[in-house]
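re the bet — no i am not wrong, look at it urself. input seq straight from the record:
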Amino acid sequence: MSPTYRRGLWLVLAAALVWVVVVRVPLVLNAESHLDSDLAVDGLTLGEAVRGHWRWHYPGTPHIGTLPVLLSWPQACAWGANPIMLVSGGTVAYVGLVAATFLLTWRAFGPPVAAWGLVPLAFASTGVIWLSGRITGGHLPAAAWHAGAFALLHAALANDRPRDVLALGLWCGLGVSLDTMFLVTLASLLPAAAAGWWLSGRSRRGLLRGLLVVPAFLAGAWPSQVGARLDPYDAYQDQFRPIFRRDVLEGHARVLVRDCLPRLFAGHRLPGLQADPDLSAPVGPGPSRGRPDPSPLAAAATAAGLALALASTVALIAQGLSPRDAAQGAVCLGLLASSAAVVAGSMLNRNIFNSDNYRYLVDLLVPWSIGSGLTLRSLARRGPGGLAAAVLLAATLAGLMTLDTTRWYARFGWIDAQGRPVHKPLDDPALAWLEAHPEVRRVLGGYWDIYRLSFLTGGRVQGVPYPIYPDRFPEWSRPPSGGPPDVLLIRPSPEAWPFLESALRSGGRVLHQARGIAIVSWPGWTAIS
């Protein structure tokens, strides 16, 4: 490979990464508007880290270590732990995913496939863009680690060097500490590594070298094990319990096929082509409940995204059936196995309810990019006409996704008529009231409200959720540091009525009402389980 060609490829990657950042500016600039409860907990953890208090893992979630804090930590140290600095970390995570996937594809499938594979990642759907507005909730750090693990597996099999095996083991150990979702990657890496060893001659030396992965893995995984023992509290104890009821599995299959997979690859749900989320919902961003989208642009973007996803799957399977060498064959096998495991795991996950659960499928972005690169490379090899067709298809996908993203941002009011980013001020009556009453330190309410308000007040207000919700900060509600709430934040919902009735019976009064919320005092607070 000539130096000029190599420099050109790096310039292509740099241009793709610049575009990735630019297209996410409206999302980052309006972080306050799409802040949800889980993202707010990420922000509260970031604020603690900036003040010098580092946790072993995110509050109430021993299965997710605090490594993702580093995505936003430099920005927060420089400009404060605010929503914009927090959400900018999601863009950093996606940049890491794109770069890691590019390096994996270059090593395992060649530079042309890597260059073509940048197209679907750089010009991704609004579903992917939305995930890069999350930190732990989008699982993008785990997806980037997924791509890096397969790149290191390829290096270990292709080069037969002890340092590559050690690097792979350490990387995988850190991956488990990063996010327990990485166990899906690990489960597919093991058979892929075994297949690579078998196809490369089953040497005893290679087997012994492979054992080096064990101590390296333990060196990377120890933080998660130590953290789980020092801080074992888990607010989601049933998170990983599978479910095998036939009716539930059939429902999950419908959600995956109609909602989750189309939202990931195309940004729209089937059959109505709605583009999530709905930011007008009273309890935070969620699936759009409006009428179907009749726009030809939505139909074209959905068709293009899903067609490329199907073509990429076929291309990756075909490459796996006739690999260039043992290392490439192992990577193909591992990526296909991990894709099947991701889909199967989502089917069995008891927490699959709607299109928001597509975040559990984020690892599929890696084989999608590689398969797309293989598809376009194969087309480009068919002479001048094939190259022109590949360029036209790539440009069409890029244009459709860019126009669809522009339309999506305009719906939220995050860009003006010229397409320039606009900061839409947050209008939150509960936040305004809390800012006007600095004496209020503890609020009882719904899960979405209380942690979001805690973060937006800089951690001054401690949020305590209703008992039916996960309690991410139990120290805020339990002695010795916690205590009774100062006020009750009410929305019209069934779970809120018992608390409102109890507060009013004990002499509480309505302090503030505005646009679907009420703030109520509770002088004789008693816990309701």
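see?? The mean pLDDT is 92. told u. also The first strand starts at residue 442 and ends at 445. so pay up
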